[in-house]
Amino acid sequence: MTVDYAAEIRRLRATVGDLLALSTIPEGWVGREPPAIAADLADLLIESLELDFAFVRLRDPTGCQVVEVTRGDSWKAFPQWLQQHLAVFGQIFRKEIVTNVGGIEESCCGIVIPIGVNGDRGLVAAASDRSDFPDQIDQQLLSVAANNAATAFQNASLINELRRAQEALRDNEQELREARDELEIKVAERTAELRRSERELRDVLDSIPAIVWSALPDGSNSYVNRRFAEYCGMPPEQIAGSGWHAATHPDDLERHNAKWLACVASGKPFEDEVRFRHADGHYRWHLQRGIPLRDGSGNIVKWYGVLSDIEDRKQAEDKIREKETELRQMLDFAPQLVAVYGPNGERLHINRIALDYLGLSLEEWRQTTERGAFVHPDDRARDRDYFDRAVSAGSPYELELRLRKGDGTYRWFLARSNPVRDDKGQIRRWYVACADIEDRKRAEEKLQQENVALREEVDRASMFEEIVGTSPALQTVFSRISKVAPTDSTVLITGETGTGKELVARAIHRRSNRGSRAFVSVNCAALAPSLITSELFGYEKGAFTGATQRRAGRFEVADGGTIFLDEVGELSPDIQVALLRVLQEHEFERVGGAQRIRVDVRVIAATNRDLGAAVASGTFRQDLFYRLHVFPIEAPPLRERKSDILMLVEYFVERYGSRAGKKFRSIDKKTLELLQSYEWPGNVRELQNIIERSVILSSGEIFSVDESWLSKEAFAPASGVETPAHLNGKVEPHSEREIIEAALAETGGRIWGPSGAAAKLGTPPSTLDHRIKALKINKRQFKYSLKADQNHQNH
Is the CA virtual torsion 437, 439, 442, 444 positive or negative? Predict the structure, then answer.
């Protein structure tokens, strides 16, 4: 094969010329726009390398701008081979040569060369129908051209950015220059305004009646107003720095300056009370306040402060303190326990008397958190309830409670709690004062006990049911009534006529467990012997002539209650047998009936006869006597109750006076002596009748009794008739006893009647009976002895 060296040399020279041309291209691209650089590169490749197709893609380093240019007239559309290649491989990372690419009649070859690392700067693609395309020189030329174009593209982008930045900088410099000029004008205007304001502020500060100052960040004084200088009598330059020390009271200087320097170091606002010297040499109290002024970084640039005169307030506080001290001393010595609490019961203060009583210090008392810790356990719930209601209603209250002493004992106190409100009506304090009422409570308890005892005594003695009197004889009856009433024992009441035996029976019934049930009274002496059985036990229909229907007897009516058999000594022997059966078996049969009726009845019997003598004479059954004589009570005659006569007279006068519509102012003294000296053989019933008669006949306001209504023999002292010496206590007791016993022996123990001992001795029967009891003579023994003598004589 013959080589045409001359042609090869020409080709090499042309190549070298192309390379030289390509190497100078970037200088011509300086200042060009990126699209123009890409177009120039595509045109250069077509012309210099005689290409049929050229494609250039350039990208700036940031990836924000991408330029693509295509050249080649024979290629009507984007080469399919290049499009497929890019679609398959995506980003071009290395040089690729493609053979047999279509697009013209003859086959041609194409090449793709990436620009930059991994094609990040773009790519260059070319195609030619030359048989040797692309040879090594073509590839080198394409690479050099592509890299130069990319460099030029980058430089152009940078240059354009730089130009734009320079233009923007020039614009900003102009704006800054204009802004600076405007700012300087505003600063000048603001400075002038601040100077005017400062002058006005200084004028204001110099004219106001307050002491104003400013200090540097280190705490040294830098300014004082005219008022400060005039007050101290010192020029401002003398006060500057630490010159104000000279105007500070020596006793306050060290403390005040130390507190000021501490605030300067910490940056906290300053406040303190201090005495400053006036120009006349006197010191007055001032309240000094200072606050720091900070810049945007928080650094203190200055301190501003003011002094306010508080001399008057301090003097008022001193007076208040003196009064408070005096008040505390008064509270401490007050004979009451005084405490102060907050709105919700917080412990604030307590006086010395209270602390001494509790055995605590003030701090110990304040630290006691439990409410009611010193209150008696039985009173705590009541105390808490009273306090809660008082707080809820906001009203004062008082309460009696027991407080524990330091030694553990309790005493009674009257606690009074009062709220103190502010100007808005809100409770600020509770003041509690506790007065010792231990002695009063003890006295009340004692008085209550005495009242109870007195009430029992009065209930027992003074007005026992309707039994009026307080005499010892009556007291004995009351005592026996109180003892036997709660039981179901049978009671036998003895005594003279008119002594109130039925009243005693009713009193026993009312005070018994049967008091709410029936009380049936039967006067056995008032009933015919033939009617007593049917009256006591009832009868069946047709039991006798006139018995047209069944009738319940007195025992049946009294079932569950009490039956009172008055004058029981008058019962016939057959009735005594029926009564004995009821007492023994608690059952009976109606007259004309065969059915036994069981009853629960308490029996109280009464008589003015001597049942013992009746038993001895055979007129009263002994077994019935013992059944009735379970609990005997003797109703004393009125002559043994002389101390009760006044009370009885007042009672009956009031009673019958009210019925008659009369009001008596007093009782005639002579009448009262007359009534008290009378022996009252008819006892209380006789007195009652005489009082009723006198009330009817009296016409004045003074109650009196006609002396002729009383037997003259009965009140010997009033008529001048003296009691025999042997019965008036003027003889020796043993002689009087012998005389009375001899008379009783002759009369078989009988006192009353023409054949009685009183008639033999020539003395009133009541007087003799009184002396027999005073000498404790058993008159019954003479009844038995007389009967024995008679039996002995009969034999």
Answer: negative
Average pLDDT over residues 89-95: 65
pLDDT tens-digit map of 434-471:
888 888 888 887 776 555 545 444 444 444 556 888 88
Tokens of residue 743, six digits? 């008379």
Contact between residue 337 and residue 353 where contact means Cβ atoms under 8 Å apart: yes
Sheet with 122-128, side-by-side order of all strands = 66-71, 53-59, 122-128, 108-115, 96-101
- The DSSP secondary-structure symbol of 618 reads T
228: which residues sit within 8 A by CB, 6+ positions away? 211, 212, 213, 236, 239, 307
Supply the DSSP string of 294-350, one letter for each residue. Answer: E-TTS-EEEEEEEEEE-HHHHHHHHHHHHHHHHHHHHHHHSSSEEEEE-TTS-EEEE
Q: What span, in angstroms and rounded, lies between the C-alpha atoms of 406 and 339?
A: 17
Does an H or E element contain 292, and which? strand 283-294
Q: How many CB atoms lie within 10 A of CB 224?
A: 28
pLDDT at 75: 62
Least confident of 70-74, 102-106, 743-747: 102-106
Q: Residue 685 contacts by C-beta under 8 Å, 6 or more apart in sequence?
A: 497, 498, 500
Hey, what are 625's tokens?
């006597």
Q: Report the C-alpha gap between 410 and 777 in whole angstroms.
A: 59
Q: Which residue has the higher pLDDT, 45 or 84?
A: 45
Residue with tokens 């070859």: 109
> Which residue do the tokens 């152009």 mark?
156
Burial class (CB in 10 A: 0-12, 13-18, 19+), 404: middle
Residues 621 and 667: beta-carbon distance below 8 Å:
no
Q: What is the DSSP letter of 222?
A: E
- Token digits for 678? 């009378």
CA distance 750 to 763: 14
The Cα 50–Cα 131 span in angstroms is 12
Asked whether residue 54 carries a pLDDT value surpassing 50, the answer given is yes
Say how far apart CA 566 and CA 442 lie, in whole Å.
49
Q: 190: which 2 tokens?
A: 């603001």
Contact 37, 58 (CB under 8 A): yes
Between 17-21, 137-141, 472-476, 740-744, the lowest mean confidence (pLDDT) is in: 17-21
What DSSP character marks residue 373? T
- Least Cα distance to 285 among 251, 316, 312, 325 occurs for 312
**What burial letters (b/e) apply to 743-758, b meaning 16+ CB within 10 Å?**
bbeebbbbbbeeebbb
Residue 726 in this model has a pLDDT that exceeds 70: no
| Residue tagged 């009026």 (tokens) | 468
Position 223: which residue type? Answer: Y
- The sign one gets for the Cα dihedral 697, 702, 708, 709 is positive
Mean pLDDT of the chain: 80
Strands 221-224, 211-215: pairing is: antiparallel
Q: Write down the pLDDT at residue 8.
A: 56
User: CB-based burial of residue 253 (10 Å sphere; 0-12 exposed, 13-18 middle, 19+ buried)?
Assistant: middle
